[in-house]
Amino acid sequence: MLQGWTPPGLWALLLWLPGLLASGSDFQHHRYEEMVRALFAVQNECPYITRIYSIGQSVEGRHLYVLEFSDNPGIHEALEPEFKYVGNMHGNEVLGRELLIKLAQFLCEEYQARNQRITRLIHDTRIHILPSMNPDGYEVAARQGPEFNGYLVGRGNAREIDLNRNFPDLNALMYYYEKNNGRNHHLPLPDNWEQQVEPETLAVIKWMQSYNFVLSANLHGGAVVANYPFDKSRYPRIRGRTTHADTPDDKLFRKLARTYSYAHSWMHKGWNCGDFFDEGITNGASWYSLSKGMQDFNYLYTNCFEITLELSCNKFPPESTLPGEWMANREALVSYIEQVHHGIKGMVYDENNNPIRKAEISVAGINHDVTSGVDGDYFRLLLPGTYTVTASAPGYLPSTSTVTVGPAEAIQVRLQKSNTLNLQER
C-alpha cells in the first residue's frame, strides 16, 4: 500500500498523457457471453492486479461476475478502503454496463503503461466492478436492440421485477427511529427477508455483507443527473410534489454527487433530456420518491455511501455514441473512486493490540455511525473540518478525540478498558 494519498487534482493531467488513452475502436454492446469474455480478457492481461469472482446467479442462471482491481487481489488490506461500481441494474439501461467494461480495460491498460495516477489508485484502493446486476433483463432488451427498445422492455429481471424496488425497506424504520432516538445505522433486516427478494438482489446483499464497502455508485440511464439519498420521502406529497429527504450526511452526499457531475462533460450544466437539475445533481426524494431502493439500503444497512448516476437520455444508445459517452464519463469515473480516500480512517484495538470488530465510530453533530471491520479498521467519509470522533464497543469505555480532517486524513483509535485514550494520527 502506498502511503500518503495525493489529492486527485495533482494527478489529473497525468491520466490523459498522449499515448495512454484507451482505444475507442473496440466500443460495442456486449451480450452476456461477450461481456464475460471481455472481463476475463482483462484478467488475463493484468493477472497480478485483478481477480474475477461471482457473487451469485440470476433467475436464469447467469453469473453476476465482479472484476476486482487491487495490488493484492482477493485480500483486504487493513486501512485500504473497498469501493464498488454497479451497472445495468435495470436491464435496458445499458450505458453503465459498457462504461464499466471500458473502465476495467482502461485501468488495466493505464496500469501497464505506468500511469502514476492509476497505479496509485489501484495500490491504495480495492476496486470492485459489477458491470451487470441484471444480465437476464439485458438479454431481453438486447434482442430488440437500440433502435426498437421500449422504455420498459427488459427493465426488470426475468420475472419482470424491478430490482431497484426490491431491497428491504429500511427507510420507514429509520424515520421511526429518528422520532424515537433509535439506531441510526446498520438497521435490522425484517424476518424472512431472503424469501422476499429476487436472486440478484439477494446476491448483492450477501456481497455487501461480505465486504466492508466504503463508497459506491450505481449506474443507470434515462436521465443525466447524479442522484443522492434518500430516495424515499419522509412525508406525503405536498402540492403534488415530494420533498427533499436529507440524510445526516446530506452535505457530504451533495459533494460526492457534484464530484461526478462537474467531472462529467455536460452533466453539471443542468439542462439534459428536457429536465433541469441545478449543478446536475438532485436529492432522490426531491425528484420522485421510491421505496426499497439500493442506494438508501446501502446507507441504512452497511457502512457504504452510494449515489445513483443517471448517465444518458437514451437508455439503450447506439454503438456509434459509445466512444463519446466514454470520453464524457472517463474522468468522472476515476475522480469518483478517488473520493473514497477523503475523511478519516483508522484502527480500533484493545489493550492487548487485538483488533476490535464492529466498534461504533460516531461523529458529533452527524447522526449516522459507521462500524469497524473484521480487521478492526474503519473508514468515515467526511468533509474537511474539525470533528469530535468517538469509538465505542461493548465491554470498553468510549474513546473520544478531536480530529481535523483535510483532503485525506487517517487516525488510529485505541480502545482500552480504562479512561486512557491512546490516539495516533497518520
From TrEMBL:
Catalytic site: E310 (proton donor/acceptor)
Membrane topology reported for the UniProt record: Peripheral membrane protein
Name the coenzymes or cofactors required: Zn(2+)
Query: In which compartments does the protein localize?
Result: Cytoplasmic vesicle, Secretory vesicle membrane; Secreted
One Gene Ontology cellular component = transport vesicle membrane
Q: Provide a GO biological process annotation.
A: peptide metabolic process
What's the name of the protein? Answer: Carboxypeptidase E
Organism for this UniProt entry: Oryzias sinensis (Chinese medaka)
